[in-house]
Amino acid sequence: MAVSMYRLSIPVFQRGLQVLAGYLDKADAHAKAAGVPPEVLVHARIATDMLPLAGQIQRASDTSKNAIGRLVGIEVPRFPDCETTFGELKNRILKTQAFFDTITPQQLDGTHTREVTLDFSTIKTTFTGDEYLMTFVLPNFYFHIATAHAILRQHGLDVGKLDYLGPYGE
User: Which residue windows are coiled coil (predicted)?
Assistant: First the structure.
């Protein structure tokens, strides 16, 4: 039995966003306990040429919702990248998750063969829908989650592999 494009995308995105929301809760608690101004963590980055924590969450949100828009052929909600607090970042995650709640499995039926063309300054290519999801979108989505994890670890947060993998058995 083939795995559906829906199962490969929406639940995966929802879980990853849930992980990011958990990171934000931990970051908020850490900032309060350590007396660190929250904006220090929101703007923290691993390297000067990489996006800060806020940017990692914004890109995870954009990567996932834009992928669904391209696959299904619908307009997706646009969010300005202006979040500067943990609460604003959590709200962006909630808005992204709410968008995913509107997508049905039937909308993604057959999108594995849909042609998806990317034309960015650094990438110009065409994929089939399944190639796009599995070789571009999911690695990109997980990159931003892993980078958010690394930023928080670098700043002393007690986050580990189980935080990254997310909750099981709930």
Answer: none
